[in-house]
Each structure stands twice: as C-alpha cells, then as structure tokens.
C-alpha cells in the first residue's frame, strides 16, 4: 500500500494549532475551524498527543465523531505519553497554553501501544489509519537523538509494523523536522515504513537538503512524503515565526522578496508555498494548519490558483529556490 493511494486529496489539515500552538484558541473557534475544513471537503486530518498534551486530539475528535468513520483518513503519532499528572511548573514553548498534563517521551513497544489506545480514547474513534513516530531527531534530543532512534527502531517501529501487518493500522512512518532521521530509517533493512511526515524541510524557504538527499531516495524506494509546515511555521502566510521561533531578519527579507514577486505575477504567496511542495513527485500531500475557519478557504483556493511559469523562472533567477527543484507546470 502507498500513502498516496490512501489519501483522498493532495491537501489535508494539520492540527498542531488546535493544541494552542503559539496562542490560546477558544474552543468554539477550534470547533468552527475543523467544521470549515470538513464542510469544504478536507478528508485527511493529522494530529498528535504532543499538540497541547492531547488537546488537539480531543478537539478534532469532537467534530469528526459526527461523521462516518470510513469517510475520512486520520493520522496521529506515538513517542509521547500524556499523563494524568500535571506539570509541577508552568509550561513554556509552543504549547504553553495547552493542557497542563505532563508529557513524557517513550518510544518503546509498550508505550507505542498505550499511546495509540489513549489517542483513540481522546479522538473518540475505533482506529487510526496512519501512525507517525514523532520527533526522533536532533532538534528535540540533541546529541542523544541516536539513543532515542535506537529505542524507536527496536520498539515503536517493530510494534507498528506488526499492527500494519495485522491490519490494525493501514500504514506507519516517522514524523520529524529533520532529514537525517528519515535517511537513517531508509537505510535500515527492517522494519520498512510506508511514508514520512516531513515538517518544514521542503518549503520555499528550506528545501536544499531534502531535495538533494531525501526525496530522490524516497522516490526510489516508494516511500511517500507528506509535507507538514508548508508555511515554515507561519512566516510564509503572514506570521512572525520561522522554525517555531521569531523569524530572523534574513528570513523576513527572503519572504519579502518572494512576496513581491508573487504580487508582480498576481498570485498569492500561499499558492506558491503549497504548489511548490506538491510539485515534487515524491510528495503525496501537504497539511497546512489553521486556527480560523477563513484560513481553510484560503488554503483550498491556493491549491487551485494558476501560477505562471514566469514566476518560477524569476524565483530561480534570483536564487530564491533551487534550480533543481521541480515546479508546477501550467
């Protein structure tokens, strides 16, 4: 099975913002956003326990519970367990406004099975289609990341392979913000993933490493790529963050140049961002996040907007995208 054959469309909905990422979202706004996604035809939803200590899963599940389970595709993640206990100190970082529950890291087989069971409870559903092993990379674990990777290789990877072979899930892979971990997985003789969720590493602002090393190998091995964070933490969609932190002056200047070119060609920068990611043959889908219902319509319109070939030529000539990057054809 390929993830491409499973996904209903090249665009899905990423729910990290529903976990109160960067800002606290009222429950009614979160609900309205998920409803807008559903009403406008989105049928692939990605979530994780890590997003607000289960908050995103709970909010998503409340709306999807109204729909027939066979009518949508659902992915969540393992590697973090949400405990009943509350953190001793206030949380900081992107999910500071999420639920106060403690979240611990555990990539063992037992924790993987427990994580799935707990996600099913929060989501109020009987199955998850795709399971990603979450954040086994340098950005979260630094020099210890290979220790965590080995824990996942002998634990989560094998447990998920067994669940897939038994038909409990339809596919599995890793969901990370770094290329190196995915390259390492593809070099293993076993177990074999179906796809990867790569966040922030194949965007208009950051794509060279993935383009040179990961995507050709993924295409050769038939491992589909789902691109998360296509707006680079929001800076490509009018936000202030890049890489989950305030954007540098250099990044702001690059975004301004891309935005200016898009304006000259009469297109939106969202269109450029989403269609750039989807143009690579290894990419199965993009999953932008949203915190307001209006953003859903913007994303769907961006997928369909006609972009003149001259825009891509100008980006290449000005060194704003790699000359080797595939781009959409008119």
Short structural summary:
The protein is of the alpha/beta class and 330 residues long.
Rough shape?
globular
Radius of gyration: 19 Å
Level-1 CATH class name = Alpha Beta
The domain tally reads: 1
- Annotated CATH architecture: Alpha-Beta Barrel
How is this structure best described in words?
There is one protein chain. The strands form three sheets. This protein has an eight-stranded parallel beta sheet. It is 41% helix and 16% strand. A hairpin with a 2-residue loop joins strand 10 (241-242) and strand 11. It is globular, with a radius of gyration of 19 Å. The two termini are 30 Å apart. The protein has helices at residues 3-6, 27-39, 55-64, 109-123, 138-141, 145-154, 156-165, 179-186, 208-221, 249-264, 269-278, 293-304, 309-317; strands at residues 13-14, 44-46, 73-78, 80-86, 101-105, 130-134, 171-176, 195-199, 224-228, 241-242, 245-246, 283-287. The longest helix is centred in the C-terminal third of the chain and has 16 residues, at 249-264. It has one domain: TIM Barrel, CATH 3.20.20. It is α/β, with parallel strands linked by helices. Helix 2 runs parallel beside helix 12 (293-304), helix 4 (109-123) crosses helix 7 and helix 8 (179-186) packs parallel to helix 9 (208-221).
């Amino acid at each position: 099975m390929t993830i491409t054959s499973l996904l209903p469309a090249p665009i899905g909905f990423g729910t990290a913002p529903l976990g109160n990422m960067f800002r606290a979202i009222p429950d009614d706004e979160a609900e309205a956003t998920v409803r807008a996604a559903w009403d406008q035809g989105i049928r692939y939803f990605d979530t994780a326990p890590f997003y607000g200590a289960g908050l995103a899963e709970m909010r998503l599940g409340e709306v999807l519970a109204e729909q027939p389970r066979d009518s949508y595709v659902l992915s969540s993640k393992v590697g973090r367990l949400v405990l009943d206990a509350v953190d001793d100190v206030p949380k900081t970082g992107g999910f500071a406004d999420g639920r106060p529950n403690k979240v611990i890291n555990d990539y063992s087989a037992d924790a993987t099975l427990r994580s799935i069971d707990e996600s099913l409870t929060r989501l109020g559903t009987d199955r998850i289609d795709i399971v990603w092993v979450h954040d086994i990379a340098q950005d979260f674990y630094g020099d210890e990341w290979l220790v965590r990777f080995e824990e996942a290789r002998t634990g989560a990877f094998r447990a998920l392979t067994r669940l897939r072979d038994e038909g409990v899930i339809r596919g599995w892979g890793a969901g990370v913000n770094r290329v190196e971990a995915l390259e390492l997985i593809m070099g293993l003789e076993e177990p074999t993933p179906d796809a990867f969720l790569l966040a922030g590493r194949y965007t208009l602002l950051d794509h060279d490493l993935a383009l040179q090393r990961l995507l050709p190998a993924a295409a050769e091995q038939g491992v589909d790529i789902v691109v998360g964070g296509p707006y680079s933490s929001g800076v490509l969609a009018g936000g202030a963050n890049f890489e989950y932190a305030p954007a540098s002056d250099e990044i702001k200047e690059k975004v301004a140049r891309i935005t200016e070119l898009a304006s000259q060609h009469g297109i939106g920068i969202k269109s450029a961002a989403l269609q750039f990611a989807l143009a690579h043959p290894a990419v199965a889908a993009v999953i932008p996040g949203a915190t307001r219902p209006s953003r859903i319509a913007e994303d769907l319109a961006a997928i369909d907007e006609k972009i003149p070939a001259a825009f891509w030529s100008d980006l290449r000539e000005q060194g704003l995208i790699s000359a080797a990057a595939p781009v959409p054809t008119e």
